[in-house]
Design brief:
The structure holds two protein chains of two kinds.
Chain A: H1 5-13, H2 18-21, H3 26-31, H4 36-59, H5 69-91, H6 93-99, H7 110-120, H8 125-155, E1 157-158, E2 161-162, H9 179-199
Antiparallel strand pairs in A: 1-2
Chain B: H1 2-14, H2 26-30, H3 35-59, H4 70-92, H5 99-104, H6 109-118, H7 125-153, H8 165-185
Helix pairs in contact in B: 1-7, 3-4, 3-7, 7-8
Chain lengths: 200, 190
């Protein structure tokens, strides 16, 4: 089946969103969705790494053998992750420190490796770039939505600014800022989106 | 001795890589549909983690010049260990089903994440071994629980929207809640 560029771009948002569809790439979504700022930085880094990796793999697809393909993808992704890490630390030092191990973990992120293996390996450079943008923006949208809800309910703030007031911290919903809140928020959110997708 | 035991327990339960540090790879969700697939996955994970951790611990002091980018060589060293063990399993134990799990291990975030978490501060050999072993067993514990619970949830009247991945995530949330409560009650949290 031949897809146009527009179809490749839009399918990443929803119908084939890597998070709603499959079980790929949940790790940054769970771990960094507690506050909006961290979510925004990791989403930006993921879009950059995904785009650069897809472009590189597509560009050199004629030279890729079948053996040790995964290792090649990891090496490519690691190089771009290191670059993204350097830029993030130079521009937003304090925020990048709080991402901790999750910035390096982009090098083994399943969305990056999965799209490189399933799509960019067979497709032209232009289509791979469009696919990476679609998937990356689909991921970012979900990440921003869930982190907005989690930060608002868990900490009572949005982008660090207090919205719900001091009294909120005595409320039971503050569990959304804790690890189990991440699982519950993402689980219920994906359930809701899956329902919407089935009825759409 | 007391510190070693504490490190082992707290690595397995208090900062469990899946439920507390939230490094949840697709493999931990994909292979826990039943015990039959979870077992070889954990076997590969268990066999590769400690050797990788030791090699990374040995090379870490020489990588001071890399500063925040040590993880690149850690990733390389861990991949080499996994390749080696995959070759061994392919040659001598081809029918165990572990080989294919070794091939997927380099892309496992929890595997690499455990190495980064344990080596985040310089420590002695016994200490990192205890932490690495505890973290591995904690990963195995969650895999075992997930496989058991998912087996029992088969055919249960779950709402259609929540069946599949959402129900597994809610299950993990419950494990996380239980472990968090227990480890803080017993003061296992560092």
């Amino acid at each position: 089946m031949k897809l146009t560029s527009g179809e490749i771009l839009t399918k990443g948002f929803f119908s084939e969103n890597p998070l709603i569809r499959g079980i790929a790439g949940l790790c940054p979504l769970l771990a960094l969705s507690a506050t909006l700022r961290e979510a925004a930085l990791i989403s930006a880094a993921l879009v950059v790494v995904l785009l650069a990796t897809n472009l590189t793999v597509s560009l050199f697809r004629a030279f890729l053998g079948t053996h040790y393909r995964l290792t090649v993808f990891i090496v490519v992704a690691a190089v771009y992750t290191a670059l993204a890490q350097a830029v993030a630390h130079a521009l937003w030092g304090g925020l990048a420190m709080r991402l901790g191990i999750f910035l390096p973990l982009l090098a083994v992120n399943e969305i990056v490796l999965g799209r490189a293996g399933a799509f960019a390996r067979h497709q032209t450079v232009g289509h791979s770039a469009v696919d990476a943008l679609g998937m990356g923006l689909g991921f970012s949208g979900l990440m921003i939505a869930i982190s907005f809800l989690r930060e608002l309910l868990g900490l009572g703030t949005v982008w660090g600014f207090p919205i719900l007031g001091e009294k909120w911290h005595t409320h039971a919903a503050t569990g959304f800022a804790l690890p189990f809140g991440a699982f519950l928020a993402v689980g219920l959110g994906l359930g809701f989106l899956g329902r919407v997708r089935r009825h759409a | 001795m007391r510190e070693i035991g504490f490190a082992l327990l707290s690595a397995g339960l208090a900062w469990n890589v899946l439920t507390d540090r939230l490094v949840v790879p697709g493999a931990a969700l994909g292979f826990t549909q039943e015990h039959r697939t979870a077992r070889p996955h954990f076997a590969a994970y268990f066999l590769a983690l400690l050797p990788s951790l030791w090699i990374c611990w040995v090379i870490a002091p020489f990588l001071g010049f890399l500063d925040g980018f040590k993880w690149i060589l850690f990733l390389g060293a861990a991949s080499l260990v996994i390749w080696g063990e995959r070759a061994v399993s392919l040659k001598w134990f081809p029918e165990q089903g572990v080989t294919s799990h070794f091939s997927l291990l380099p892309a496992n975030g929890a595997f690499f994440g455990t190495i980064l978490l344990v080596l985040s501060e310089p420590e002695g050999f016994l200490s990192i071994t205890a932490k690495g072993l505890g973290a591995t067993l904690g990963y195995g514990l969650i895999l075992y629980l997930l496989a058991t619970f998912r087996g029992r949830l088969k055919g249960a009247p779950i709402p259609k929207s929540l069946s599949g991945l959402p129900s597994v995530l809610i299950l993990l949330g419950l494990f996380s809640m239980v472990l968090m409560g227990l480890t803080r009650a017993f003061r296992l949290y560092p």
